TrEMBL record:
InterPro entries linked: TopoI_DNA-bd_euk
GO molecular function annotations of the record: DNA binding; DNA topoisomerase type I (single strand cut, ATP-independent) activity
GO biological process entries: DNA topological change
Organism in which the protein naturally occurs: Paramecium sonneborni
Domain DNA topoisomerase I DNA binding eukaryotic-type: 2-89
Listed Pfam families: Topoisom_I_N
Name listed for the protein in its UniProt record: DNA topoisomerase I DNA binding eukaryotic-type domain-containing protein
Length: 89
């Protein structure tokens, strides 16, 4: 699912391909999880993204817009499901 939100990396907004967005989405979903600060995960993700997005630096990237967007989408789906359940009763 394309979200077309700009990733902030090294202080500038970067437009991405669908494939790049996919990997950034995965990373944004791991924020505040036990994996977020694991060295092996960080190293592997940064290595992967450097092959996909020239000049990518994980420590300079901000995923907050992407994380917020997907959290809002999740809440919308939950609310829609709750409304459908109420209508069925």
């Amino acid at each position: 699912m394309r979200h077309n939100l700009g990733l902030i990396n090294i202080g500038k907004q970067i437009n991405r391909t669908e494939e790049q967005e996919y990997f950034l989405h995965i990373r944004s979903q791991l924020i505040e999880s036990p994996y977020e600060n694991k060295d092996i995960y960080i190293k592997n993700f940064e290595s992967l993204m450097q092959t996909k997005l020239e000049g990518f630096q994980l420590d300079k990237a901000y995923f907050t817009k992407i994380k917020k967007y997907f959290e809002e989408q999740r809440l919308l789906r939950l609310n829609k499901f709750d409304e459908q359940k109420k209508q069925q009763k």
